[in-house]
């Protein structure tokens, strides 16, 4: 879930200097300028690590919604609805794949017909 914390770039690769994707910097280190270009980074201070630029409101809203859903009497129904929606989406995607495969086969037949002419 590092994408949720803003540690991963659009290409899916880490934007930080470490293997875990975080930009850990020293308060007086040479990596400070590079880290400040990135809107989310971890800064080492005397008190410990400090997240800079991280806005936790979205994470807090998601946690609150999850707690409310857990308390709800309709939690099982919501889960079943979510599963059905996912299954429907997968069927739509499979249908598109079949259409693409059919179109590819048709194009191959057209190409072979043109080659024989």
Short description:
By secondary structure, this protein is mostly helical.
Give an overview of the whole structure.
This protein has 117 residues and is mainly alpha-helical. The protein has 3 helices and 3 strands. The protein has a 3-stranded mixed beta sheet. Strand 2 (41-45) and strand 3 form a beta hairpin. The protein is flat and about 80 Å long.
What topology does this entry show?
Layout: E1 24-25, H1 32-37, E2 41-45, E3 48-52, H2 57-71, H3 75-116
Parallel strand pairs: 1-2
Antiparallel strand pairs: 2-3
Features of the shown structure:
117 residues; mainly alpha; 3 strands
Cα end-to-end separation: 56 Å
How much helicity do the residues have? 40-55%
Q: Tell how many strands the DSSP assignment holds.
A: 3
Order of helices and strands: EHEEHH
The fraction of residues assigned to DSSP E strands is: 5-15%
Shape: flat
Major β-sheet, in short?
Answer: 3 strands, mixed
Oligomeric state of shown chains: single chain
Mean pLDDT: 75
- Helix and strand content put the structural class at mainly alpha
Strand adjacency order, main sheet = 1-2-3
Flag low-confidence runs: 8-30
**How many individual helices?**
3
């Amino acid at each position: 879930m590092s994408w949720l914390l803003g540690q991963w770039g659009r290409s899916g690769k880490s934007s930080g200097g470490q293997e875990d994707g975080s930009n850990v910097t020293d308060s007086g280190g040479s990596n400070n300028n590079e880290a400040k270009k990135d809107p989310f980074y971890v800064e080492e201070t005397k008190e410990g690590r400090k997240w800079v630029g991280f806005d936790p409101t979205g994470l807090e809203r998601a946690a609150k919604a999850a707690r409310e859903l857990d308390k709800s009497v309709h939690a099982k129904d919501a889960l079943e609805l979510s599963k059905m929606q996912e299954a429907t989406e997968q069927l739509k995607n499979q249908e598109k794949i079949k259409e693409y495969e059919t179109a590819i086969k048709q194009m191959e037949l057209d190409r072979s017909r043109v080659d024989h002419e």
